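anyone seen this seq b4? input:
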Amino acid sequence: MNAWKSIAKEAFSQTCLVAKFLGFLHLTNNYLISPTLVYGPSMLPTLNLTGDVLLVEHVSHRFQKVPKGHIWIQGDNMYASCDSRHYGPVPYGLVQGKLFFRVWPPSSFGSFGQ
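predicted toks r here
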C-alpha cells in the first residue's frame, strides 16, 4: 500500500510541476513576451514580406500615456500600408503588443530602437 501512496504522491507532484510550467508559458506568452511571424508589405523595407520572426512585448503599452484611449499606427511602407492614415486612430483595447526584437532571419537579428 505504501508503494501506491508513493507513486500517487510522485504523480501528483509531477502533474503540479507541469501545470505550473504551462501556467508560466501562458502568462509569458499573453502578458509579457511572445513570438510572431511577419507577413505582408506594410513594414517594408524595415521588415521582409514573410519569414521574419519577431519577439513582441506586451507590457509597455499598458503603462504609457495614450491620448484618450486610442493610438495612431503607421507602417514603414507608406504606399502599401493599410494603417491609421486610412482608418484613423486604433482603440487602445485592440493593442496586443509592441515589437522589440527580430529573431529571424539571422542577418537581421537584433533589437529595434523605439
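The chain has a mean pLDDT of 83. Helices lie at 2-32, 84-87. kinda curious what u guys think
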